[in-house]
Amino acid sequence: MSSQQPGRDLTVHSSAREMAAAVRTRRISARELLELHLARIDERNPELNAVVNLDADRARAGAAAADEHLARGGPLGPLHGLPFAFKDTHAVAGWPTTYGSPLFADHVPQHDELLVERVRRAGVVVLGRTNVPEFAAGSHTFNRLFGTTRNPHDPSRSAGGSSGGAAAALASGMVPLADGSDMGGSLRNPASFCGVVGMRPSLGRVPEWPLYNQWETTSVGGPLARDVGDLALLLSVLAGPDPRAPMALGEPGHRFAAPLEPTPRALHGLRVAWSLDLGGAFAVDEEVAVVTEQAGRLMARHGARVHGAHPDLSEGDDTFRTLRAWHLHAKLGPLLAEHPGELKASLADNIRAGAPLTGTDVAGAYTQRTTLGERMRQFFTHHDLLVLPVSQVAPFPAEQEYPTQVAGRPMASYLDWMRSAYLVTVTGCPSIAVPAGRTPEGLPVGVQLVGPHGSDRRLLEVAAAFEAAREQG
């Protein structure tokens, strides 16, 4: 380091864009940037338990290689030198990938999956993994292998899930960006709980490979970031077609890298459908309802035409639960049969729920999903945006597996409280969870911005405008 202390203005809460630019211009080295984040992990991770299988020595070797590559004048990826910890359900060659299960405690893949391959090619320095619930099932991050991940804003509370380790590590400054995946809200719920931005992209936007079912999925990979500009940067790396993923959308990822305009102007004239509960489809706690209402009023103050409206997603509950049970049984049924009693009870119950499904049941769910997609297409001919809660509750106590009631209504299972997220899942539409306010106790609450299928770039612009409007008030 020189006496001028390159990068002295950077902190672990600087934007990923600022960090990447500082590495490229040699204001800070990848080694120095890594040490900032390792120090932060030492400070926060013992309490939060967000990063698992940390390997500081291997990360230091990776940072040294990144600096040497820069010194040789080699081509640089958009994330060159940024420390990164992959979600522990994504296969990373040469690194433990446990899926949060003791059954896979010693599992080390030989090949990267596509999402990981793209992020590594963009130049990151891998330092470890982020914690997940067992096999990513459920929106609270705990497992018997690593324990519970806690909320950076109040460690007595849940960080959400299944990308809870990723969101907690990001919010607390342990990493500048994070990857995740989302079936029923696994990017959006932890983003809301931890006060960061999370995006479930359009179905097909972020291709996945390999998959046990390459032709259809309810789960998608996607980005987490501390602001919308950083989210767009990571999406530009994750998105784009690949010959191994036949259902991928064709637009190249670089279209998401163009800078977003950080002003509320994009809200002016926007036709916004605002809904608290999709016409009574789910319960919402009062403290979440207040923040959601404030978000609608904020958009209206900045020129949006906000109206109470919602699409009819009445088939969504049956569609999601049928397809989820079918996928879980197809993927994990053999494992459950081989290791009865060794998976958490709620997951085992969901896997078993797929066993009695018939071809007629599954075909009916797909028919309903087609109906929901068409209904959303028609809805968005009259509206530009749908705004609703991300999560029906604020972060709940970390000792609970799931909220047992919402707004006084009992929740019969660990899926019931996630309807606000999973009803959007089965439409195939893109959705961004953006911080919108806090409860009286200071806990973060996000709102969910939903756009038409394929409108991911436009949705990023609107989310950036909402973010700017919040800063202006």
Give an overview in words.
The chain is an alpha+beta fold. The chain has one domain: Amidase signature (AS) domain (Amidase signature (AS) enzymes, Alpha-Beta Complex), CATH 3.90.1300. It is built from 13 helices and 17 strands. The chain has helices spanning 16-24, 30-48, 56-71, 114-121, 164-171, 188-194, 228-238, 286-301, 316-338, 345-353, 359-379, 419-425, 456-472; strands at 51-52, 83-87, 125-130, 142-143, 147-148, 150-151, 154-158, 178-182, 197-200, 220-225, 271-274, 305-308, 385-389, 405-406, 409-410, 431-438, 444-450. Strands 8-10-9-16-17-13-11-12 form an eight-stranded mixed sheet, with helices on both faces. Helix 5 packs parallel to helix 6, helix 7 (228-238) runs antiparallel to helix 13 and helix 9 crosses helix 10. The longest helix has 23 residues, at 316-338. The two termini are 41 Å apart.
